[in-house]
């Protein structure tokens, strides 16, 4: 660090024409570090300097040969502007990466972008319509993704994020697309992939299957209906319920459903084998017989407006395989079919009737139970098309939207006299997270990754292996472990195929007649991957099958499916960490950090693919943050008008305030933001900035090569200050390592406001301003401040990156900073000097601060009455116990400097009841230099307004300080 220019020291000139208090020189220091940050104006300048000085390159250069710390970036979708959630995510990552670089690691940050999939394809449809060819969609999607990446890059850099911005990873990079297909080929080879008919989450707008992570739940109003399926085998019913005869009346088994549109596809009924079911005789005109779960008879009859008696009870297992007529059988002959009863353990009797109607094409349990009956795929009735309309040939409802048809279905059920109750029902229902429209389970042919089958050469299923791996991962916060584990335990097989164009193709050649894959599929995948590596996924659209299959090409067709976009991002541990950026990154990553929704998204898909490929998790730790909400706890949305854009906040407050807000908020919960909250953050920032300004000003004429004082020779309170910052640094570094950033901000705020502002610096001002410029007393104070600066600037730099760099540029010498590659971010944590007998000193100052706090409170009360103007006008008498007396008595005459008064008298008392603080105004004159009230003011004829202490500091050898 170069020697500084001492011209910053400004003495106030003598001028008898001016106010007398400006007559004598004191050590008031100026600094070029401004009081006002003007962050929104100055920050772009710092970003430009970082680019010009290649600061990220300087960090990399300084980190050579250090152990690596890898935070692997979860890629945001490259389909629009960044939002406040993106800002939170990237700022948290930046804080961590900057910290670990300063903690002695090589922590590289490679930002990523998720480029394929529906988010971008939807944008293309909005811009160009839905009639584009697949190759046109792909070309336009790729161009749009590049455009949005550049836009997002500028927005992220504006937040002060440092990283490989010119070497980011993109899932659409040709090499990544090719390696993704290769990884899929390995997973296929290992035996995890299968093709099958199953109900999957289906969006009518996407016209594609959806992953679990692409679903959100919203309130939806639907018809809630109770429907009767009439007896087709009354003799069996009589026997099961141990009745000699069935009473007269039409008999029905009654189901409840909130999806009337599934009634035309009904093929069975489900009951629980162990539950009791009742046969109820309804004495209406005409009378009825109803089968209901015993526990729900009372509530159902109330809903139906019926009165009746239970005439028989049986277990659900007894009803197995009994047939009932479809409820529309008397309306249209095409519905004149039977619905058998199958057993299902999933059924509850919390509500409804305890009997579930089964449409195997539209329910997971329905499908699985149906298949257990040895039914073929071709037996499944599946009348809903990919756009949400019934097939045109469906009787009564052909060509109608399923949602509109529900009302008509209810009308026909009423006409058939099988509708016992109907009402509107509000429930939480599945919606597409992109289109915000309702989705359904729809049985289609898809490619799946099997969760429970144990492949050849493996000892455990994928589900079992994933659960084992979770137990070895660290979670921040800890509840993330149970959340991820629960999702893995309860998830179905992974539907990895999509019926879209903008994605990595499932590059299979499928036999036109048998539906089987080509016998050389694995070899073909590698050949196609090589083509993709050169030209991108677009080559699949224009690929000539004959080039690969020769004469056999006429028997095969290309798969039109693409890989799930969660497979894209979930395989980046292979395509990026071990692929495109293997020089920068290593496997496994130390940390994945994303929002809490990624337990079923990126965390989830990354874990499963890595277990298959590597037999281990791709990360050692997971950090989860909450969502951004407004001051009322409501999610941000355009309709509510509560969206806050990070770009606007940067222009209004500066990115630094946004960074401080993120760090000061407990991210393990949802993060509240509002102008009021941000204004409070601004106040915190001002306190920290003003503290830095004082510290910089009072070291601007300090050259550590010349002026530094040995720790053993320092004034005692300066030693205490070194101990204090040492302990603070230890605590803050520990919080950084545990990712407890809100604790860091809280402790820094308290430190700047209370430990420094209200205590140490408050006491220090007299010594800094009034002692001789080069005195031991002043240089001791400056030595302490210099050490504090060294530590504090490093501690705040991961969070307050712009401010710490600005301060560092001054502290490390402005000219040297400009001319060199110097930056705060290449520094390691500061090694503070050791102070001996620190515990004893800490105890001593704990007692002092306790008593000082009481004195300050009493001084403030008296000052508010007008008896004294400032604390320096007071004379204090302290009557204290023996222990406190012995400690305070050590300070001697310097005790007054600790208490900011002109005089302190100590008296030891025997009884605690005699303890008291007596304050009275001084009877002496005020020194017009130090403002102390002293008996010796006026003793000198040549300087009648100076105390002897100030005269000695100005014209003599200067005072000595030992304690304060």
TrEMBL record:
Monomer. Catalyzes the attachment of isoleucine to tRNA(Ile). As IleRS can inadvertently accommodate and process structurally similar amino acids such as valine, to avoid such errors it has two additional distinct tRNA(Ile)-dependent editing activities. One activity is designated as 'pretransfer' editing and involves the hydrolysis of activated Val-AMP. The other activity is designated 'posttransfer' editing and involves deacylation of mischarged Val-tRNA(Ile). Binds 1 zinc ion per subunit. Its cofactor is Zn(2+). IleRS has two distinct active sites: one for aminoacylation and one for editing. The misactivated valine is translocated from the active site to the editing site, which sterically excludes the correctly activated isoleucine. The single editing site contains two valyl binding pockets, one specific for each substrate (Val-AMP or Val-tRNA(Ile)). Belongs to the class-I aminoacyl-tRNA synthetase family. IleS type 1 subfamily. Keywords: Aminoacyl-tRNA synthetase, ATP-binding, Cytoplasm, Ligase, Metal-binding, Nucleotide-binding, Protein biosynthesis, Zinc. GO terms for biological process: isoleucyl-tRNA aminoacylation. Transmembrane segments: none annotated. Residues 718-877 form the Methionyl/Valyl/Leucyl/Isoleucyl-tRNA synthetase anticodon-binding domain. It comes from the Bacteria. ATP binds at residue 638. L-isoleucyl-5'-AMP binds at residue 594. PROSITE patterns: AA_TRNA_LIGASE_I. This is Isoleucine--tRNA ligase. It is an enzyme of class 6 (ligase). It catalyses: tRNA(Ile) + L-isoleucine + ATP = L-isoleucyl-tRNA(Ile) + AMP + diphosphate. The keyword Amino-acid biosynthesis does not apply. It comes from Candidatus Profftella armatura. Its main location: cytoplasm. GO terms for molecular function: aminoacyl-tRNA deacylase activity; ATP binding; isoleucine-tRNA ligase activity; tRNA binding; zinc ion binding.
